[in-house]
From TrEMBL:
Keyword Cell membrane attributed: no
All residue ranges annotated as the ABC transporter domain in the record: 42-91
Source organism per UniProt: Paraburkholderia rhizosphaerae
Lineage: Bacteria, Pseudomonadati, Pseudomonadota, Betaproteobacteria, Burkholderiales
UniProt-listed InterPro entries: ABC_transporter-like_ATP-bd, ABC_transporter_ATP-bind, P-loop_NTPase
Keyword field: Transport
Protein name per UniProt: ABC transporter family protein
Any matching Pfam family: ABC_tran
Keyword Aminoacyl-tRNA synthetase: no
Highest rank taxon of the organism: Bacteria
Similarity-based family: Belongs to the ABC transporter superfamily.
A GO molecular-function annotation: ATP hydrolysis activity
Length: 99
């Protein structure tokens, strides 16, 4: 068993209860530098997702849907605002996350 993984109590995952908030997006802004200046894609976005909810994200082409999903996945950072998962600030992607 030389390669056996040792799990500590810290490795036990918390399972949220139905209706408990798991993700919060608060006043998120995201802009991109363009030749003609900053292009603001997201401005003051707020979102709260709770355990058990099924959510759809709709919008026109270029409205920031993919940008918001990349921020939620931790693949890019917001220019301003905060994203929390399970009450803790999101700091980069979880292991194995890709988009």
């Amino acid at each position: 068993m030389l390669n056996a993984e040792v799990l500590s109590n810290d490795a036990v995952e918390y399972t949220p209860t139905l209706g408990e908030e798991v993700l919060r997006v608060a006043q998120v802004r995201r802009g991109f530098d363009k030749l003609q200046g900053e292009q603001l894609v997201l401005d003051g976005v707020n979102l709260s997702l709770r355990e058990g909810e099924i959510v759809g994200l709709l919008g026109r082409s270029g409205s920031g849907k993919s940008t918001l999903l990349r921020i939620i996945a931790g693949l890019i950072e917001p220019t301003d605002g905060e994203v929390t998962y399970m009450g803790k600030p999101l700091e980069g992607p979880a292991e194995g996350v890709a988009m």
